[in-house]
Amino acid sequence: MAPLQGSRAPMEFGGPLGAAALMLLLPATMFHLLLVARSGSARLLGPPPYLPGLEALWSPWALLLCLTWLGLQAALYLLPARKVAEGQELKDKSRLRYPINGFQALVLTALLLGLGMSAGLPLGALSEMLLPLAFAATLIAFIFSLLLYLKSLVVPAFALAPGGNSGNPIYDFFLGRELNPRICSFDFKYFCELRPGLIGWVLINLALMMQEVELRGSPSLAMWLVNGFQLLYVGDALWHEEAVLTTMDIIHDGFGFMLAFGDLAWVPFTYSLQAQFLLYHPQPLGLPMASVICLINAVGYYIFRGANSQKNTFRKNPSDPRVADLETISTATGRQLLVSGWWGMVRHPNYLGDLIMALAWSLPCGVSHLLPYFYLLYFTALLVHREARDEQQCLQKYGLAWHEYCRRVPYRIMPYIY
Ligand SMILES: NC(=O)C1=CN([C@@H]2O[C@H](COP(=O)(O)OP(=O)(O)OC[C@H]3O[C@@H](n4cnc5c(N)ncnc54)[C@H](OP(=O)(O)O)[C@@H]3O)[C@@H](O)[C@H]2O)C=CC1
Ligand SMILES: CC(C)=CCC[C@@H](C)[C@H]1CC=C2C3=C(CC[C@@]21C)[C@@]1(C)CC[C@H](O)C(C)(C)[C@@H]1CC3
């Protein structure tokens, strides 16, 4: 068994108790949303319309479909990539290599789907199977996390994540012990973060749109917007796949239940909530309002992409002409921090852009219900918490230089507000 790390990171998420509560609360919330979205009243805060029995949740076909989907995405991951990127330096000074072929996987999935649909594949029927599919995905996430936990017990100490090896099995199962679990060159965390869940999300959105066509003859403008905005978001993530290698999830967090469930179940089944809501609660949307919403999404995307690209370009090559003129602070690690451009406006401009887009995804659903705004509320909480975790890590990495950055750029996410 791998020894525990010398210096243990402080526990997050409320320790073992918080982790245990989240392991129950997150799947419960996901099923609540799935049930409420199709109910007449669609009340986010009310009780679910009914409690489904096992027969409504369990379907071997749904399990088979989920496993086939994972198999297909794994096969696409293994196809030759246009580029192989190197990750950040690890504790043993090595760097892992990652295939950059996520966008190719999206395009090939779309082609296969197009072929399937022209051969009569009833994609809309997927929208009737969301409950058993979500149950199967949750089951897979639990079993997968257990296997990851067992695997982590036999890896050397340097392969463990800084945060997920507290010695408490519940906490470590939740957060993930091993930083980069792999079999040969197949990296489970990197694969799950960007492929099955994100592509699954747009697939579910499309299925809901096809079902709307079945029911009402054509897709509504609101459904078009939600599908279009979220496809742009997923396409962007896969196009800029290499950038995920510098996120907290890849560099810092282990691969445990939180990310496995988040990637495989939470993202596809809760991030598609607006499209689910629209299928059962059609909303009128005029062109002027639709144009305003498109503008809000465009502003959000502009900030999100501008900020993420600026940081990634700077981290790759600080002398790149696109970032060379920006003002910086030097740190004791030899790395620099940007203090002008997007990163001089607030300390997390990319979160601000992401939140503005989240608002644009909910607005097509009107203002009669709180339910479609769940994503915006959850995402605000997630990013505020994530920002605090990142600040803590940056303070540890950069010490005084980070204090100086906070003095120069006092707002975290929203200028003059937070
Ligand atoms: N849709 C969703 O569910 C989610 C989306 N996201 C999105 O993912 C994206 C990535 O987010 P995340 O991984 O949390 O964090 P960031 O991309 O914001 O990365 C934070 C890191 O950037 C570096 N950094 C911070 N400030 C500066 C600066 N001034 N100059 C240069 N480098 C700096 C630090 O790392 P270092 O110095 O080591 O490089 C810091 O740890 C965001 O756009 C976020 O909105 C995130 C979570 C969920
Ligand atoms: C509530 C719960 C189960 C928490 C787990 C959190 C995960 C759902 C998110 C943690 C970080 C994520 C990122 C994305 C999706 C959601 C999760 C997995 C992301 C892939 C979305 C697309 C973006 O462009 C991104 C690549 C920057 C982003 C990375 C972080």
Q: How is this structure best described in words?
A:
The structure is a single chain. This protein folds into two domains: 18-41 and 56-282, no CATH class; 286-417, no CATH class. It is built from 16 helices and six strands. Mean pLDDT is 93; it is low at 1-7. Strand 3 (182-183) and strand 4 form a beta hairpin. It has a two-stranded antiparallel sheet. Strands 3-4 form a two-stranded antiparallel ribbon. Strands 5-6 form a two-stranded antiparallel ribbon. The chain starts with 14 loop residues before the first helix and ends in a 10-residue tail after the last helix. The protein is mainly alpha-helical. The longest helix has 30 residues, at 287-316. It has helices spanning 15-37, 54-57, 60-78, 102-118, 130-152, 169-175, 188-194, 196-216, 221-239, 248-251, 257-270, 273-280, 287-316, 349-362, 374-398, 400-408; strands spanning 84-86, 97-99, 182-183, 186-187, 328-330, 336-338. The protein binds NADPH dihydro-nicotinamide-adenine-dinucleotide phosphate (NDP) and the ligand CC(C)=CCC[C@@H](C)[C@H]1CC=C2C3=C(CC[C@@]21C)[C@@]1(C)CC[C@H](O)C(C)(C)[C@@H]1CC3.
